Amino acid sequence: KPGQRSITAFFGTS
Amino acid sequence: MLEARLVQGGMLKKVVDAVKDLVTEANIDVSSSGFQLQAMDTSHVSLIAMHLRSDAFEHFRCDRAMSMGMSLANLAKVLKCAGNDDIVTLKANDDGDTVTFMFESPKEDRVSDFELKLMDIDSEHLGIPDTDYCATVTMPSGEYARICKDLSSIGDTVVISATKDGVKFTTSGDVGTANVTVRQNTTADKKEDQTIIDLKEPVALTFALRYLTSFAKATPLATHVTLSMTRELPVMVEYAIQDMGFLRFYLAPKIED
Q1: Which of B40, B108, B145, B172 is least surrounded, with the fewest CB atoms within 10 Å of its CB?
Q2: What is the DSSP string of B103-128?
Q3: Which chain B residues touch A14 with a CB distance below 8 Å?
Q4: What ipTM was estimated for this complex?
Q5: To the nearest whole angstrom, how far is the Cα of A1 from the nearest Cα of chain B?
Q6: Which alpha helices (DSSP H) does chain B contain, by range?
Q7: Residue B123: what pLDDT?
Q8: What pLDDT score does A13 carry?
Q9: CA nearest neighbour of B250 among B158, A4, B220, B233
Q10: pLDDT, position A14
Q11: B213: three-class secondary structure by DSSP
Q12: For all residues of chain B together, what is the average pLDDT?
C-alpha cells in the first residue's frame, strides 16, 4: 500500500 | 498602519470558509503586494497558499509589512456577520494586537465594525519550487467537487491518471471500484462547462481523497479549478480569485516505499 508523504518532504523550509 | 478596502467583501468570506476546516490558525502576511497566507494542515500533508493582490482593493495602504496571526474559526465568525454584498475594510496599527473589520452595506445604510484579537503563531514558511507540470487540467469546479464526493463514498484513496484519452479518477473500497474519466471539452456552449487538458507527458499519482474533497470547499470562489500534476510531486489544485489573486492547495502524493 502506498505511503502518505509529508508536504515538507517536497517543499523545504525557507 | 494597514488600511484595505475590498468592495467584494464576500470574496473574503469564501476564502476563509474554504480553508478553515483544514487550518485552524494561520498568519496572514500583509505587505505592499497585498495579503498572503501560507499554512499547512495539522498533519503536514497539504499546504495552502493564498494571494490577494493589493490591486484587488479599492484602497490599499500598508506602511510596513506585518504578519497577523489569527484563529481562522474566529475570523470566520467575524466574517459571517458581513453581508455577502458588503464592502469590507480592514484596519490595523503596526504594533497592535487587534485588527478591525468594518462592514458597509452596498446602500450605505448599515455600518458595523468588529475587532478581532490577533495571536502569535509560529509558522514554518515553505519554499514552493517552480515546476514544469506534466499535466494541467482545467475543469468546472462543480465537476471536480462532484467527482471527489462521489468517489469518497466508495474509497479513501484516488489514483488520478492523465493520458491522451483524458484524466481518469480511480478508487476502490469495500463496495467495489469506481472510475470517472474527464475528457477535453472546449466546444461547450457555456464557457463554465469547458474542460481543457494540457498534457506534456502521461502521469499517474495517488492521493488521499479526504484532502481533495476538502479543497472543493473553495468551489464558490471560481467556475473552474486547475489541477497540475508531475511525477512524484504534490498536485496543485488552484482556484482563481477572479482577477484578484489565487487560492492554491498542494497535496503530497502517496508513494510506494
Answers
A1: B108
A2: EE-TTSS-EEEEEEE------PPBP-
A3: 125-127
A4: 0.94
A5: 7
A6: 10-19, 72-80, 141-152, 209-215
A7: 83
A8: 78
A9: B233
A10: 62
A11: helix
A12: 96
